[in-house]
Amino acid sequence: MINIKSDREIELLKEAGRLTYLTHLEVKKHIKVGVTTNELDKAAADFIKSQGCTSSFLNYNGYPKSICVSVNDEVVHGIPSNRKLKEGDIVSVDIGVCYKGYHGDSAWTYPVGKVSDDKLYLMEHTQKALYAGLEQAKPGNRLGDICSAIGTYAKDHKLGIVRELVGHGVGTKLHEDPEIPNYGVKGTGPVLKKGMVLAIEPMLNLGGDAVVMLDDDWTIVTEDYSPSAHFEHTVVITDDGYEILTLTRGD
Ligand code: MF3
Ligand code: CO
Known about the structure:
By secondary structure, the chain is an alpha+beta fold. The chain contains four helices and 15 strands.
């Protein structure tokens, strides 16, 4: 069941989204050659705590850290460690913040120093795939319209689509109905309604679609070792479209 949020709940989700965005800004400041992914985790954990909030990911199904940091061929759920970022890496940072029981969820992929043109292409078009999906986020459209727009954009740009992981509803639980695959068929699935809160999150690869899980039981990597990018926003469906919750006004 896809629940419709009340105005009061949307206000709380907006604050959770805003704090998620501010945490991203904090982490972004630390992304440079030589920093460890643990240091990024600490920057996020300290900031989230300073705001009186908690990480949505810490202890989620036993997840051991506050954020996910996935480098190069790591798609998602990279566990922060002593790994140092190197010139030419791309790094996906996924952050969830819980404010008064409501979650924000957002991911962004950043270059470390100067990166190759093909990695820049991957990042540019994964971000644009997110916005192609969001263009379809309005009342009366169907969920499949969002999924199909992302999948078509990815295909048109010859990027691999991760099929095992999906976007999702967001509320008092980090993952609520519906599941939102990054491919699909226009005109199918549930009708979108004002007050639905959705996390849309294309995960696209420079190579094929296939992914595998590492022995740590968390990190998802591309099977062909190709780089992967991840862009995610939590949005609310409004009267005539959508509003991004994981930004602040003016961004
Ligand atoms: N951020 C993931 C998502 O976008 C969920 C990560 S849960 C964790 O849905 F436990 F792996 F952190
Ligand atoms: Co998500």
